[in-house]
């Protein structure tokens, strides 16, 4: 007990001592601050603590009893730019002992003048993170607040402002009551005020809120908020009443620009208080332009909530709607029961209000986001879904997007280390990227799924899967903000999707698995892969040959942050290639090997055979790497020449530092030794020296040495000597020949690269060019900068790409500013001369023409002096470029590159200048016009106007047309060229063409063609073929579709047409036709014509406008009793029923039937006097005529070699009609059927016309034909084959008529054989020619003359009388008789004969009972008659 008492006394002593010490310190401090020195020391301490490198606090004086009632004077705050805040006086009086009751009681806060001239300059030190609004541990009572003047500078609010502030506040525990007052007044003459009152009385639960702010236009708030037009402000918040039935109103008006109103109520029900908020706002005019669309019109806000007495909170409704969209929601929170629930829906009907906020163009036609939260408050669950339709992001379209996310907190959600389990999905459909090449990569649908856990620092992905049309891949692993680690499995990757990026027919499917561990900055990377590409095709013949169809990839690669790297059996193996790499390179040791095996070099190029290998090794360490590379080709050939033991070795030491090394070459090519050696070294500064370079193959040798500075400037000398460049042809894989003797000198001076070249190339052939001699002597200064050159290049007999240059000479004379180039030469027979100043600078090249001309014969063009071309950044600027030609001109100015800005003008430019490029072209006329072109080369914009007067060309002249006048104008925009053109000269009225054309091949046509064409314009062209045209065609057409698939609408009408072919005897009159266009086809609505005899011809059909398919269609032609042919050899009256189908422009099919009603074939006695085309051959023609003749031959060759070849299937039926053959004594009737098959280029005729009956008459002697056939060998001139026999004295005479009808061959023969004159003598007179009388000899001569080409009077007489036969005969007594005959039908022939006496008249009737039995009857004027039956057989 005593010990305890003693311990207590000790403890009390210690406590009293401590308390006393503290009290002593406090008293000492207070006493110290009561002295001037103490207060000064306190001021310095405060200044030191408050100042920093970016801010300096200065306090002039501290007065009063510190700390109870303190006054500071002359306070200033400065930054790097000086003082920005001053305070002349401030006083703080408070009661420190009030802290013991948990309240700070301030009796007075007073200030004189506080001036802020500008905002402070931002500090260089990072700002401390804000902890949010301070939470006071004690209550605050301010009995008086008074600031006499606050002066704000113009830099703060846009004008100087002076304010006075007063007020008081009681901010303590609400159970003890709350109150506060504030009053702010402008003291600079502006009527702006802020008055506020807050009061809460605990006993009555009365809450009063009264705040009002008002200022005129141009006030502080308008200026600080940067409101348009600086409107006046009027803002009030008023509320008064007990908390169980309280109402407050808010009104904000900013002049007539904006208004906002809201009402809040608090009411009491059985178990809690209910809060209701309703408001509207129209504030778009106050917002910056980019935000204003979100608040256009009136926005509505509505909220309902309740706080239960047990602490629960329930949000019954949240509703907000405006131009930007609509938000609805509800929810509940119960901390006591650890429960939360809620739902929020965001609906955005249009993207228009957000357009200015997005960095790229956005659009959608409905976007809705729904979020729900439920579960424990400590581990809530989130379900988020978003659906959008018709989305477009930077013109990349998404038809529909559905995104979902389910997440669950696995701990307190607000703690930074809490993990969240998630399951996410994204489904996109209707994908249409802006870049067409991306369409194949992503397809039209995409799906992404992922699940795992995540924190704010990263995610552990259990499974992620991506499915695209060409790709299916999965990933699992960890992703952080700076790295990724995991497994990748590419199940399928279709390489064909990448075709649009490669311009090659890429194909194949890749499947692989791998492990990936990498930082996103790739300083650390480790990849292990194992996979295969199947059915691979790259479109590159060499790659496809080496890799084959299946390629396997395996192994790994790694790179570490310290720069070390390595391979782990990394290999690529294909059909004819193998690559393997292994080993590592670290700071301690390097041992990396790589081998490329090419077992069949022909897969690289068919001109090469054999095997090749490349071996590479890295040794040493990472800091001192040594490398060796060996290329070996053995037992190989190139261009058919052997390559043996060709080996190239490169060895280098310390490749990452001061590298040194050597090169060697050995082996043979085509039996010629290949040798080479050289050394190189790189110093620490990066300079490279190449020495002792000597490489040779056969007669070709390159030698020299040079240095390359760290600035990449070279100095040294190289020589190239070649007796025959063909020695190196196998290595270059191109046949070449020629000799070279060339010296190159490189030098560097004042940071500029110089080059001198001197030598000769002779008898060169290769690369598609040939050259007899090229003498080069050129010196170039500042090759890589502002280039200037001196020297000369002379060329002789240069031929490149079919262009021959017999001679050309280019000389240069350079200064520091520019190089003067002079060019003289002959190109394809055109004399070319030019002088120009070329200034080549690092960022541009300027070419200024002093003179330029081109001439051939009478044609000459010149370029006006001063034309300039500036090449800069991939664009060229053209200035004052004008071409003059024979009084006309063509001028271009502006720029061309990614963007176009060109002005083009033509003034009376003669089209004959085209003769410079193509002699004999024959163009004539003058071109005038102008054009302004902008936009891009693929989508130009602009306008144009042009006119061509006197336009003609050989085809137009040959067609008999007068020169044409063409006027056209239009605009270029949106990938189209508008056109409004007229063509005069085809007819009296102009042909009008209006509409637009695409500027790209796949664009759509939109053209209208209207006008009238007189068909007589074709007469001059057709006159040489004996054809004539008449009538007119009127067109009113609209062409749409594409060039490859045009569409036509409209009508073409042919009226009063007439066609006559005098050579073939064809005449069609009254030709009328109506052709209409209907989308993709032309429809022949009607076609009528009249033949020579009045027979009708009709037609109709359709032709599809499909050039690729040869314009397929169907056309029918019909005719009845139409005389289609009437000439000296043929007269045909037929009926037609024909169909033409298939591709009309290439291989149509012509089928149907031709019914012969009457066909008469006349065998002429002599060549008929019809028009026959005359073949003209030019001998020693002038050059222009010869060129025209050559062009015409090429045109005819192209026409003859065209693809048109019609298939034929036509039946010609003469079984019921009559086919009559007459002439040179022949009078025969035939019949039958023939079929024409094959093609138009090779018709095959099956069948023909055979003899029904017929006679052959020679000077009154009639013979009966025993054989007769008529065929048509592909022309309208038929082939005849007739044979007649009769007894003639002591022989049997035979007459044969064959050949074409217009030039038949008549031959007489007999059995036994006699000369033709003897056969005729016996046939006519029954006796040899030696026994003939003088009169009989004369008759025999007449007969011979007849078959040599005499008169055919009787044939002409029968044709004019309309009968089938006219005969003149003599009886046994020499009396003359004339007979005529006509067939009544196929089997009855009626004849009448009249002799020299009245009693000699006779009538005969022949009736064909069968083909071999005939009934013959005869009655004479003398009363005599006879009947007989005749029979005949062929044997």
Automatic annotation (TrEMBL):
It is a single-pass membrane protein. The keyword Lyase does not apply. It comes from the Bacteria. Pfam families: TamB. The keyword Transmembrane helix applies. Keywords: Membrane, Transmembrane, Transmembrane helix. Residues 883-1060, 1086-1435 form the Translocation and assembly module TamB C-terminal domain. One of its GO terms (cellular component) is plasma membrane. It is found in: Membrane. One of its GO terms (biological process) is protein secretion. Its main location: membrane. InterPro entries: TamB_C. This is Translocation and assembly module TamB. It comes from Chelatococcus caeni.
């Amino acid at each position: 007990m005593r010990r305890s008492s003693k311990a207590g006394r000790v403890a009390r002593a210690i406590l009293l001592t401590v308390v006393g010490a503290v009290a002593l310190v406090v008293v000492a401090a207070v006493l110290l601050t009561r002295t001037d020195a103490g207060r000064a020391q306190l001021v310095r301490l405060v200044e030191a603590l408050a100042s920093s490198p970016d801010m300096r606090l200065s306090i002039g004086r501290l007065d009063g009893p510190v700390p109870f009632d303190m006054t500071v004077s002359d306070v200033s705050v400065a930054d790097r730019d000086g003082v920005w805040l001053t305070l002349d006086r401030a006083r703080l009086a408070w009661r420190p002992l009030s802290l013991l009751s948990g309240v700070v009681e301030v009796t007075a806060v007073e200030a004189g003048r506080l001036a802020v001239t500008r905002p402070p300059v931002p500090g260089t030190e990072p700002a401390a993170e804000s902890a949010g609004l301070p939470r006071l541990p004690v209550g605050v009572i301010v009995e008086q607040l008074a600031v006499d003047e606050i002066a704000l500078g113009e830099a703060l609010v846009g004008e100087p402002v002076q304010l006075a502030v007063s007020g008081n506040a009681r901010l303590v525990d609400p159970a003890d009551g709350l109150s506060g007052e504030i009053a702010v007044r402008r003291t600079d003459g502006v009527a702006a005020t802020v008055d506020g009152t807050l009061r809460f009385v605990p006993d009555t639960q009365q809450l009063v809120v009264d705040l009002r702010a008002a200022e005129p236009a141009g006030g502080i708030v308008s200026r600080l908020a940067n409101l348009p037009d600086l409107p006046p402000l009027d803002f009030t918040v008023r509320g008064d009443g007990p908390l169980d039935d309280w109402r407050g109103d808010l009104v904000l008006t900013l002049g007539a620009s904006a208004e906002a109103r809201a009402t809040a109520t608090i009411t009491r029900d059985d178990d809690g208080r209910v809060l209701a908020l309703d408001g509207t706002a129209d504030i778009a005019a106050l917002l910056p332009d980019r935000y204003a669309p979100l608040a256009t019109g009136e926005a509505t806000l509505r909220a309902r909530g309740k706080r239960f007495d047990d602490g629960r909170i329930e949000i019954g409704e949240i509703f907000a709607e405006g131009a930007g969209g609509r938000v609805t929601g509800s929810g509940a929170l119960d901390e006591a029961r650890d429960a939360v629930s809620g739902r929020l829906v965001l609906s955005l009907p249009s993207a228009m209000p957000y357009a200015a906020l997005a960095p790229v163009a956005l659009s959608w036609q409905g976007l809705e986001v729904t979020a729900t939260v439920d579960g424990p408050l400590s581990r809530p669950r989130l379900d988020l879904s978003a659906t959008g339709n018709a989305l477009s992001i930077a013109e990349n379209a998404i038809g529909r997007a559905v995104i979902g996310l389910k997440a669950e907190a696995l701990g307190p959600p607000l703690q930074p280390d809490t993990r969240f389990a998630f399951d996410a999905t994204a489904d996109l459909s209707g994908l249409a990227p802006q870049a067409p090449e991306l369409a194949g990569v992503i397809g039209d649908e995409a799906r992404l799924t992922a699940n795992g856990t995540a924190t704010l620092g990263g995610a552990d992905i259990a499974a992620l899967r991506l499915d695209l049309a060409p790709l299916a891949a999965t990933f699992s692993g960890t992703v952080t903000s700076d790295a990724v680690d995991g497994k990748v499995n590419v199940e399928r990757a279709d390489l064909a999707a990448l075709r649009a990026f490669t311009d090659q027919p890429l194909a194949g499917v890749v499947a692989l698995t791998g492990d990936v561990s990498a930082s996103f900055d790739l300083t650390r990377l480790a990849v292990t892969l194992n996979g295969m590409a199947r059915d691979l095709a790259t479109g590159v013949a060499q790659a496809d040959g080496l890799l084959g169809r299946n390629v396997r990839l395996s192994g790994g690669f790694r790179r570490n942050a310290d720069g070390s790297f390595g391979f782990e059996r990394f290999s690529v193996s294909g059909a004819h290639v193998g690559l393997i790499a292994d080993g590592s390179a670290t700071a301690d040791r390097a041992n990396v090997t790589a081998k490329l095996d090419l077992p069949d070099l022909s897969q690289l190029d068919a001109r090469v055979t054999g095997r090749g290998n490349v071996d590479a090794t890295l040794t040493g360490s990472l800091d001192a790497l040594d490398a060796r590379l060996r290329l070996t080709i053995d037992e190989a050939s190139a261009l058919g020449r052997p390559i043996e033991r060709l080996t190239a070795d490169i060895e280098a030491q310390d490749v990452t530092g001061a590298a040194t090394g050597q090169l060697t070459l050995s082996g043979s090519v085509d039996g010629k030794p290949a040798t080479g050696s050289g050394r190189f070294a790189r110093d620490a500064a990066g300079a490279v020296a190449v020495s002792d370079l000597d490489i040779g193959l056969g007669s070709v040798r390159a030698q020299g040495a040079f240095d390359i500075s760290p600035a990449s400037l070279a100095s040294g000398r190289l020589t190239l000597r070649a007796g025959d460049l063909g020695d190196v042809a196998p290595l270059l894989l191109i046949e070449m020949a020629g000799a070279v003797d060339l010296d190159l000198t490189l030098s560097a001076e004042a940071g500029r690269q110089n080059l001198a070249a001197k030598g000769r190339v002779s008898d060169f052939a290769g690369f598609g060019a040939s050259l007899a001699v090229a003498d080069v002597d050129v010196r170039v200064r500042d090759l890589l900068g502002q280039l200037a050159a001196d020297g000369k290049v002379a060329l002789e007999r240069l031929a490149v790409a079919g262009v021959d240059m017999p001679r050309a000479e280019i000389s240069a004379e350079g200064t520091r500013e520019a190089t003067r180039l002079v060019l003289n030469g002959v190109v394809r027979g055109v004399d070319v001369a030019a002088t120009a100043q070329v200034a080549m600078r690092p960022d541009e090249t300027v070419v200024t023409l002093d003179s330029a001309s081109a001439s051939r014969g009478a044609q000459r063009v010149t370029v006006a002096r001063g034309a300039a071309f500036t090449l800069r950044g991939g664009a060229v600027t053209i200035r004052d470029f004008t071409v003059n030609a024979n009084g006309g001109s063509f001028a271009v100015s502006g720029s061309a590159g990614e963007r176009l800005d060109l002005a083009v003008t033509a003034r009376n430019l003669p089209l004959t200048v085209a003769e410079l490029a193509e002699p004999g072209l024959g163009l004539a006329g003058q071109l005038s016009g102008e054009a302004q072109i902008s936009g891009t080369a693929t989508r130009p914009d602009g306008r144009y106007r042009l006119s061509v007067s006197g336009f003609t060309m050989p085809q137009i002249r040959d067609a008999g047309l007068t020169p044409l006048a063409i006027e056209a104008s239009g605009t270029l925009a949106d990938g189209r060229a508008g056109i409004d053109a007229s063509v005069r000269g085809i007819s009296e009225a102009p042909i009008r063409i209006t509409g637009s054309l695409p500027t790209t091949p796949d664009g759509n046509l939109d053209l209208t063609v209207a006008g009238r064409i007189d068909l007589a314009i074709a007469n001059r062209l057709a006159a040489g073929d004996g054809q004539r045209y008449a009538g007119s065609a009127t067109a009113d057409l609209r062409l749409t579709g594409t060039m490859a698939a045009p569409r036509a609408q409209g009508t073409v009408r042919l009226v009063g047409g007439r066609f006559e072919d005098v050579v073939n005897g064809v005449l069609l009159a009254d030709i009328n036709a109506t052709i209409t266009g209907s989308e993709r086809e032309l429809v022949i609505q009607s076609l009528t014509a009249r033949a020579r005899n009045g027979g009708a011809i009709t037609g109709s059909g359709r032709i599809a406008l499909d050039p690729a398919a040869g314009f397929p269609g169907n056309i029918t032609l019909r005719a009845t009793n139409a005389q289609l042919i009437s000439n000296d050899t043929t007269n045909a009256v037929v009926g037609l029923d024909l169909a033409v189908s298939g591709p009309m422009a290439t291989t149509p099919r012509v089928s149907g039937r031709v019914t012969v009603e009457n066909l008469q074939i006349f065998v002429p006695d002599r060549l008929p006097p019809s028009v026959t085309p005359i073949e003209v051959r030019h001998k020693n023609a002038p050059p222009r005529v010869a060129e025209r003749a050559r062009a015409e031959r090429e045109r005819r060759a192209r026409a003859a070699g065209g693809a048109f070849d019609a298939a034929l299937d036509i039946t010609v039926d003469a079984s019921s009609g009559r086919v009559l053959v007459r002439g040179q004594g022949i009078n025969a009737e035939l019949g039958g059927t023939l079929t024409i098959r094959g093609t138009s280029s090779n018709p095959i005729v099956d069948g023909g016309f055979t003899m029904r009956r017929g006679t052959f008459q020679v000077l009154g002697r009639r013979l009966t034909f025993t054989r007769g056939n008529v065929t048509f060998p592909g022309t309208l001139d038929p082939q005849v084959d007739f044979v007649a026999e009769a007894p003639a004295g002591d022989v049997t005479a035979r007459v044969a008529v064959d050949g074409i009808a217009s030039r038949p061959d008549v031959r007489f023969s007999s059995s036994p054989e006699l000369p033709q004159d003897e056969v005729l003598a016996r046939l006519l007179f029954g006796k040899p020619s030696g026994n003939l009388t003088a009169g009989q000899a004369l008759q025999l001569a007449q007969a011979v003359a007849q078959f040599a080409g005499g008169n055919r009077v009787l044939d002409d007489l029968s044709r004019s009388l309309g009968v089938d036969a006219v005969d003149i005969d003599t009886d046994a007594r020499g009396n003359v008789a004339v007979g005529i005959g006509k067939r009544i039908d196929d089997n009855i022939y009626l004849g009448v004969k009249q002799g020299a006496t009245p009693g000699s008249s006779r009538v005969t009737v022949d009736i064909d009972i069968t083909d071999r039995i005939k009934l013959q009857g005869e009655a004479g004027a003398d009363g005599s008659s006879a009947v007989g039956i005749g029979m005949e057989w062929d044997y």
